Structures are given as structure tokens and as C-alpha cells.
């Protein structure tokens, strides 16, 4: 290794346990497991592969949700559109919103967090690797079950918010809402298990010397996000269980005729729904907070303020949900209170914007593709944030709430904020994950095309909303003044589609060039600042050959640079001298396992059983019980698995360690 104990402090190199092959008590799946091919993906518990699978699944759902968006825009491009009937439009509209929120933006955040958090904190995996695998498979099962509604008669048609009493059997007698319910309960379970896993990972598995205030901002924003998920998902799941009992078993939680109050659903949904906005945007804030310092060649301005503003956003996000309900008759005192809290939450968000700008100010800016997307987030999210502040003023909100002005605001926040940030993250960390960089020239064209298409699509919606165009309508008549801007918006949507095609084309072209060149990607292509750039590209299975000891924030950058007597950065070590080689041996990883997939596969069977035939619940329940039994008895390590070249050993292994934190990481990997 090129790192010496002097440079990196005491180093840990776990070894195998020396106890001989570990056998599966069930006698199943105990054969040696491949590290390549489809079986390696089906059985993986590696946080990096799971992160890649989250990202791949999210991109597939992104294409599906994008096609649904194009159908909406074609329908509304001209007055009296005939492409979709009212009923089909409601289905497409509902599935577009649900897909983009729950199956695209959230899992892209999960992809980046799963892949990067252990790398950024100096760990070799997450705390509970098999639970992590289960989280992905149950997310995928929920997404597939939700979309199977297209093939089984009728998709959900109540909007992604699914308000009562429209979500009851009287107004939606088909099973579309039931598929919505079951699918999102499963994706919620994935989010909940992932939240527990990543919270434990962040709190218990940091490298020696990495205090909380030395963690990268991306990891901090991810940690805040996981706490939001931990408390928000059960609220939505509770509402969904109540709705399930109403629809399938004749309960009356939202039945107005039986004396129920449908506002209960709105409160439960938005108590989840507004923290959900920050669940989607905070990881993107973290991405931008990593990209801007690297391409400004400056440390992040006001690191403590960035951290605590993120925490403040997470905390204050619980106190603003009813600004979604100003038009629902909750009373003037409630409206006034939530108006004030909504105004206050703009303050920590403004702190982040100012700190990003201060980081860029005076820096040696490099306008590579990741930096362009980061700047795109800062500018577009600022527009979305300012339009959102107008909704804190209840008279304005009352006038705007059921118009396309809200649609414009929402998309400027989530597309202009979260998705632009995540695309920047893809371009930034793609070399680390796959060993080759996406083409920068194509990436820059990709950015400008998507920025133009985005503003053409959603900018006019502000005007349409102020002109009075209602949202959630499937057509409109000629003569209201909506024609021109709807047509412009539809053209913009197809430009976004072109940009998405360009992104996928960039992946294909860049991969082919990388294979033809047959060059090894540099470990640190951007001159990065955080620990993930200390390991080779693509990341070895075991992450770190040696667990580094951290002495300061941006520790990896400080291993490369010092300061002269005027405080200017001076190179003190070549990158090759501080990156690891990735060739550690005799380091044991947690075993691959089929059981997380089996456990996840049982849950949609239970869901279909609840909808169609309760006997199917028995079949699904047997899958679940068998998988839990298998997971319980399956050894956490398997010396027959051919991955002794890298990773953590489980608790009880004999390890050689010079870092006090390493045994804690070892123990935490056993789940």
C-alpha cells in the first residue's frame, strides 16, 4: 500500500475467521457463489451493487413515468384533446405522479445514499447488508405490483394524493386504488428498513477520528433524510391501512355517511407529504454541496451552517403540512399558524443557497457537466422556492391552489431541484461506480437541452395558473386563452424526452469508448475532497484496503494539499501516493443470500391475496415465514463464498486491527 501509518494513522486489515467453511443449516444455497453474472446481482448484499440496482430500477420507472407525462401533455396540447378519455386521463395522471415521487426521485436518492454513505464515512458496508438487500427487492416488488394494475383491469385514478372520499369504493369501485395502497405499503417498508439501516451505519460505523462534524455534507443530508423517513413513513402507512380496511373489509374510517371526516386522510397524508418533499430534496442538496466545492476548488463555505440548516429544514418540515389544506376549511387560526411556519422554513433553505453562492464566489470554477447541473439546481430551485413562498400567504394560496401555478411550483422544486441535482450526481460519481466517465461534451449538451425543455414545460404553467387554468382537468375548451402556453409546454415536454434519450445515449457511447480504450479510470478524476475518491475506480468489492484514520473535514483533500504561509493550497503529495490500490486479501465479506429476494417476493402475493382471494395470502405468508426462517438460520459469513479478497468479517472473527473502530464495524455488519 502507498499509504503509510504516518499518513493515515493506525490501519485495520480484517482477516478470515479460520474456522473452516460455514454451512447453511437449511442445506440450501450453501454452494460457492459467483461474483459475476446475474446470480451475483440476485443474491448480492453489497451496498454498491444494491445502490446501482436502485438507480437502474429508478431510471426504468423514470422512462415509464416520462411516457405517462408525454401522454398528459399531448392530451392538453390543444383544446378538446381526444387522445385520452376522462377515466384514462385520471389513471395516467395518478400513475405519473405516484411513479415520479415514489419510484423515481426517492429511489434515485436511495441509490446514491446506498452507494456513497459507507464510502464517505470509511466503512466497508452498511450495518445490515441483508436487510439492505431486502429493502431493494421489496421496493421493486412494490413498484411492479403498482404497475401491474395496468394489466389487471384498471390503474389507480385518485391522484398521487388519493384524497378521501374519492378513494372509497363508492367513487372508485375497481381495484386500482387497492394496487396503489399495496404497492406503496411495500415501497414504504423498503424506505423504513433502509432508514434504520443507514442511521445505524452513519452513527456506528464511521472511520476512526470521523466525528459527526467531520462527515461530508452529503452524508449529513442523507442522515437527516433517514430520520424523516423513519417518522414519516409510518404515518402514511397508517393511513393506507385504514383505507385498506375501508375498501376491502367494510370499515368506516373515511366513510362520510357513517360519520367519518375525510379531512383525516388529508391530515395523515400531508403530515407525511410535506416531510416527503424534503426527503426528496435534501439528498440532492447534499449532492450539490459535494460538487460545488470540488469544481470551485474551494472548501464548502460555512460547513456548520450547511449542516445545521439541513437539520433545521428536517425539523421545521413537520410544522408546515397544513399549507396544503388552506382551501379545505381548517379555520383562520390554523391557517395563520401554518402561514407563519411556512415563511420561516424558507430561512434555512436560503442559508444553503447563499452558502453555495459564497463557495463559488472567488473560486477557480470549472464548468464541467456535474457543475452545470449543480448550478442548474441552485437557480431552478430558487425559482421554485420563491413561488412556494407565495403559497405561505393564504389569500394567494387560496386563489392558486387548484390551478396550474401549483403544478409549476411543484415541478420547479422536484424536477428543477431534486432531479437536476441527481443527474449532476450521476455525472459526478459515475467514474467511481463504473470505472469510466460519461462524455463531458455530450453531458454539457444534455444539460442545456434538459434546462431549455424544463423551462419551456413548466415556466408557462405559472402563466396558465394565473390565467385560471385548473389542474387535474383532462381537457379544456377553446377561447379561454390556454391554447398557446399549453402547446409551448407540450413542446418543452418532448425536448425533456430528447434530453433523457441523450443521457442514455451518453451512457452507451461512453461505455463503448471506455471498452475500446481499455484504460483504467483514475481513482480521483475530479481532484475530490471526500473519502470515496481514496479508493480505486470502479470501487473494489471491499471498499477500503485499510480503514483510514480521519483528522479533519475533507480529510482526503488535506492528504494531497497543505497551505503556504499565505494560506494558499500547495500540493504536498501526488494523488497516486494517497489513494489505495484495492488489492487487499484475506478480508471476508458478508455472504450473498437469496433469502431477501424470497422474503420480498412473498409480500406482493399477500397483496394480491387481499385484493382477489384470501387463500393467496396463505401462500404469500408461507413465502414470508420460510424466508424469515432462512434468514435467521443462514450464517452471516460463508468461507466458501469466493470473496475473501475484500470486505468485513463478521462478529466473532479473529481480526488483526490497529483501529479501535474496526471491531464495531465488524459487529455491525452481522444482521
Care to describe what's here?
It is a single chain. The chain has a single domain (47-540), classed as Cytochrome c oxidase-like, subunit I domain (Cytochrome C Oxidase, Chain A, Up-down Bundle), CATH 1.20.210. By secondary structure, it is mainly α. Strands 1-2 form a two-stranded antiparallel sheet. The chain has helices at residues 5-8, 38-42, 47-76, 86-121, 129-148, 176-204, 217-249, 263-296, 303-316, 332-344, 346-360, 369-389, 394-400, 404-434, 440-467, 483-517, 555-560, 575-578, 595-611, 614-633, 662-668, and strands at 561-563, 569-571. The chain has 21 helices and 2 strands. Residues 1-34 and 641-671 have low confidence and may be disordered. Helix 4 (86-121) packs across helix 8.
Give me the secondary-structure topology.
Elements: H1 5-8, H2 38-42, H3 47-76, H4 86-121, H5 129-148, H6 176-204, H7 217-249, H8 263-296, H9 303-316, H10 332-344, H11 346-360, H12 369-389, H13 394-400, H14 404-434, H15 440-467, H16 483-517, H17 555-560, E1 561-563, E2 569-571, H18 575-578, H19 595-611, H20 614-633, H21 662-668
Helix pairs in contact: 3-4, 3-5, 3-16, 4-6, 4-8, 4-14, 5-6, 5-19, 6-7, 6-19, 7-8, 7-9, 8-11, 8-12, 8-14, 9-11, 11-12, 12-14, 12-15, 14-15, 15-16, 19-20
Amino acid at each position: 500500500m502507498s499509504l503509510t501509518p504516518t499518513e493515515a494513522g493506525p490501519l485495520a486489515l480484517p482477516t478470515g475467521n479460520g474456522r473452516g467453511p460455514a454451512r447453511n443449516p437449511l442445506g440450501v444455497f450453501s454452494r460457492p457463489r459467483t461474483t459475476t453474472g446475474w446470480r451475483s446481482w440476485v443474491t448480492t448484499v453489497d451496498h454498491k451493487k444494491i445502490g446501482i440496482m436502485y438507480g437502474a430500477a429508478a431510471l426504468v420507472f423514470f422512462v415509464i413515468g416520462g411516457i405517462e407525462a408525454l401522454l398528459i401533455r399531448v392530451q392538453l396540447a390543444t383544446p378538446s384533446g381526444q387522445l385520452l378519455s376522462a377515466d384514462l386521463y385520471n389513471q395516467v395522471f395518478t400513475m405519473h405522479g405516484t411513479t415520479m415521487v415514489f419510484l423515481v426521485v426517492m429511489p434515485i436518492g436511495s441509490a446514491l445514499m446506498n452507494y456513497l454513505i459507507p464510502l464517505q464515512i470509511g466503512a466497508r458496508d452498511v450495518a445490515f447488508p441483508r436487510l439492505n438487500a431486502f429493502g431493494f427487492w421489496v421496493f421493486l416488488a412494490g413498484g411492479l405490483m403498482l404497475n401491474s394494475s395496468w394489466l389487471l383491469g384498471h390503474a389507480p385514478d385518485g391522484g398521487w394524493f388519493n384524497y378521501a372520499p374519492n378513494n372509497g369504493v363508492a367513487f372508485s369501485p375497481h381495484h386500482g386504488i387497492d394496487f396503489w395502497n399495496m404497492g406503496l405499503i411495500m415501497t414504504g417498508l423498503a424506505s423504513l428498513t433502509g432508514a434504520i439501516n443507514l442511521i445505524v451505519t452513519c452513527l456506528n460505523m464511521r472511520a476512526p477520528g470521523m466525528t459527526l462534524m467531520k462527515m461530508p455534507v452529503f452524508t449529513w443530508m442523507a442522515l437527516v433524510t433517514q430520520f424523516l423517513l423513519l417518522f414519516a413513513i409510518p404515518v402514511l402507512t397508517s393511513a393506507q391501512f385504514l383505507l385498506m380496511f375501508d375498501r376491502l373489509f367494510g370499515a368506516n374510517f373515511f366513510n362520510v355517511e357513517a360519520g367519518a371526516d375525510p379531512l383525516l386522510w388529508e391530515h395523515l397524508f400531508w403530515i407525511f407529504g410535506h416531510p416527503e418533499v424534503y426527503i426528496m430534496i435534501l439528498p440532492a442538496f447534499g449532492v450539490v454541496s459535494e460538487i460545488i466545492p470540488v469544481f470551485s476548488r474551494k472548501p464548502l463555505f460555512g460547513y456548520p451552517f450547511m449542516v445545521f440548516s439541513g437539520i433545521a429544514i428536517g425539523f421545521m418540515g413537520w410544522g408546515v403540512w397544513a399549507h396544503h389544506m388552506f382551501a379545505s376549511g381548517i379555520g383562520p387560526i390554523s391557517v395563520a399558524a401554518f402561514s407563519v411556519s411556512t415563511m420561516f422554513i424558507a430561512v434555512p433553505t436560503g442559508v444553503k443557497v447563499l452558502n453555495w453562492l459564497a463557495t463559488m464566489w472567488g473560486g477557480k470554477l470549472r464548468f464541467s457537466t456535474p457543475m452545470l447541473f449543480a448550478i442548474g439546481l441552485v437557480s431552478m430551485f430558487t425559482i421554485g422556492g420563491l413561488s412556494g413562498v407565495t403559497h405561505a400567504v393564504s389569500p394567494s394560496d387560496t386563489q392558486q391552489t387548484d390551478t396550474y401555478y401549483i403544478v409549476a411550483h411543484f415541478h420547479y422544486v422536484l424536477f428543477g431541484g431534486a432531479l437536476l441535482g441527481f443527474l449532476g450526481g450521476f455525472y459526478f460519481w459515475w467514474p467511481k461506480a463504473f470505472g469510466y466517465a460519461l462524455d463531458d461534451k455530450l453531458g454539457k449538451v444534455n444539460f442545456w437541452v434538459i434546462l431549455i425543455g424544463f423551462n419551456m414545460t413548466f415556466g408557462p404553467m405559472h402563466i396558465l395558473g394565473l390565467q385560471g387554468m385548473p389542474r387535474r382537468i383532462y381537457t379544456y375548451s377553446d377561447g379561454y386563452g390556454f391554447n398557446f402556453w399549453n402547446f409551448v409546454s407540450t413542446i418543452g415536454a418532448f425536448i425533456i424526452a430528447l434530453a433523457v434519450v441523450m443521457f442514455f445515449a451518453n451512457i452507451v457511447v461512453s461505455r463503448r469508448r471506455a471498452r475500446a480504450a481499455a484504460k483504467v479510470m483514475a481513482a480521483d478524476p475530479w481532484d475530490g475532497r471526500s473519502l470515496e475518491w481514496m479508493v480505486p475506480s470502479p470501487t473494489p468489492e471491499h471498499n477500503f484496503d485499510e480503514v483510514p484514520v480521519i483528522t479533519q473535514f475533507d480529510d482526503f483533500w488535506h492528504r494531497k494539499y497543505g497551505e503556504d504561509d499565505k494560506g494558499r493550497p500547495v500540493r504536498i503529495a501526488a494523488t497516486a501516493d494517497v489513494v489505495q490500490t484495492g488489492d487487499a486479501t484475506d478480508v471476508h465479506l458478508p455472504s450473498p443470500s437469496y433469502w431477501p429476494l424470497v422474503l420480498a417476493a412473498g409480500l406482493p402475493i399477500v397483496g394480491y391475496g387481499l385484493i382477489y382471494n384470501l387463500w393467496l395470502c396463505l401462500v404469500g405468508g408461507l413465502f414470508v415465514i420460510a424466508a424469515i426462517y432462512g434468514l435467521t438460520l443462514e450464517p452471516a459469513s460463508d468461507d466458501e463464498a469466493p470473496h475473501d479478497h475484500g470486505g468485513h468479517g463478521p462478529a466473532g472473527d479473529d481480526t488483526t486491527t490497529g483501529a479501535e473502530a474496526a471491531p464495531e464495524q465488524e459487529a455491525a455488519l452481522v444482521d
